[in-house]
Structures are given as structure tokens and as C-alpha cells.
Amino acid sequence: MNWSWNYFDLDGTPIENPTEPCVTSGFPNQSDAEAFVSESWRELLASGVGFVTLKDGDREVYGPMNLRPE
Question: What per-residue confidence (pLDDT) applies to 43?
């Protein structure tokens, strides 16, 4: 399947047209998708992304996951 992230702003509103550093082209597997967020969460947060949801094709796997540190 095509693994991807849905991005949401700090208020939880979907980001319809995400830009860098968001990846919108998809990932070949779940571990690559999770590695991207694990390595990029600070840049995503700095660009206004507050939450992400992981999808496998059209199926939501989990989320929304808060990117802000506790």
C-alpha cells in the first residue's frame, strides 16, 4: 500500500495543501513513514504542523498524534 501522513495545524484543522517539510508523495512501508516523522517532527512543528495521522492507502492507522513535547 501507499503509506502517508495527514497533517493538521496546531488547532487540529487539516492542512489541505501541505508544503515543505511535509512529505505528500507517500512511503513504501510503515517503518519509513514513522522514521520520517521521528526525524522531522521538530521541522514539522516549526512549520505549523501540530498533529499527524498515519494512513495506509485510505485506511487510517493511528492518530492524530501530537507533535508538541509534553
Answer: 94
CB 9 within 8 A of CB 56: no
Q: Please state the domain count of the chain.
A: 1
Q: Which residue has the higher pLDDT, 69 or 30?
A: 30
Question: Could you tell me the three cell numbers for 30?
Answer: 510503515
| C-alpha cell, 44 | 514539522
Judge if pTM exceeds 0.85: yes
Structural domain harbouring 7: 3-66
DSSP states of 17-51 as a string? S--TT---S-BSSHHHHHHHHHHHHHHHHHTTEEE
Q: Identify the CA nearest to 15 among candidates 46, 42, 66, 50.
A: 50
